[in-house]
Design a protein that fits this description.
The protein is of the alpha+beta class. Helices cover 15% and strands 31% of the residues. The longest helix is centred in the N-terminal third of the chain and has 12 residues.
């Protein structure tokens, strides 16, 4: 199941009112969570789906226009940018926070971070993932992946995943 997108601060919304181009606008969601629509003024957008925002605008416009048809779409996703990143931290050459790409694996992300340092504990790495609102840790055996071709822990990454590679204790 895919979660519905919730509008956030700094997202850009396109509001289209059918047969009323003077009421159609493109608006950036302000820090107070609002956008401004001609005639009706400020409308809460943050934390709502685009469909919910459209419904609110339609309801308020119905005072002025008979049966308004309103569509709201997100034309620029800014608030979601950090939620869809993959991060690699710890004993890597260059810790990263990079955009998630479909098909991306643990090995892809570690290589993007420049690989492990000489002090890394490759078989103690962990993948942290939010599952049903809780953080779950998965063992990642990077030494097995790199030296033996055992891809059983080369998990496909999801947006928001964090890979942590600790240093060895001497």
């Amino acid at each position: 199941m895919v979660d519905k997108y919730l509008v956030g601060v700094d997202d850009t919304l396109s509001v289209s009112v059918w047969r009323n181009p003077e009421l159609s606008v493109t608006a950036v969601v302000r820090p107070d969570g609002m956008i401004t629509v001609p005639v009706i003024g400020d409308v809460v957008a943050v934390g709502k789906t685009p469909e919910e925002v459209a419904s609110d605008i339609k309801e308020r416009l119905s005072t002025y226009i008979r049966n308004p048809q309103v569509a709201v779409s997100v034309t620029q996703l800014v608030s979601n940018a950090f939620l869809t990143r993959v991060r690699v931290t710890g004993a890597v050459v260059s810790p990263i926070s990079s955009p998630h790409r479909p098909g991306m694996t643990v090995l892809d992300a570690v290589l993007e971070a420049g690989g492990m340092t000489d002090f890394a504990a490759p078989d103690q790495a962990r993948l942290y993932r939010k599952v049903n609102g809780k953080i779950k840790a998965y063992a990642v055996h990077l030494k097995q992946i790199l030296q033996k071709g055992d891809l059983s822990t080369n998990y496909e990454l999801l947006p928001g995943d964090i890979i942590s590679i600790p240093e060895r204790s001497f």
